[in-house]
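#structure-requests
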Amino acid sequence: MRLMLARHGETTWNRDGRYQGHSNPPLSARGEVQAQALAERFAASDEISIVASPLMRAQATAQIIATRLNLPVTTDHRLMELAYGEWEGLQQATVKQKWPELLRQWKRNPDQVTFPGGESLSDMQQRVQSFFEYTAGQSGTILAITHDGVARMAVLEALGQPLSAFRNIRIENASMTTFTLEDGKCAIDDMNDVTHLLGLAGDASRELL
């Protein structure tokens, strides 16, 4: 089967450089147009099932695509972003003032961090592994609307790389990362594909991770 992970469109917090996690900022105007570009990419596709994270930015992106394709959307909590806990809603400058050592560790050894009031990478890894196991038993093509962290984790799982490599992966807003799951194996067909966005691709240098 084929699994396509699409990151949600840009949000107002992406634009402003704020940690999002399980919070619910809306899509920005640019993010809505990015979601429409994703929808057009799949306009001629057959046999796609759409599933999305319950967070508002993923649901909004999924609904734009689903309306264009006249398809339903199911929700799966395993697709939720990494929970940043008390960091959510803050810009990195504020985080650096309040948690300088933890931020330093997050940048150097992300696999060793548990966010205050939030999750660790191993927590999210368990969710992603469970979702992979579920999708491997399905047929056809699944389009999953999810988040930066989940897509990064999925890439690490497919490549067999450790959690310490989490920050080495780049996933932009409204990008596509595609996997083939067959005979218990997972292969990456494409990663961080933004060709459908044309001039709408975001400035990846602004990403907090």
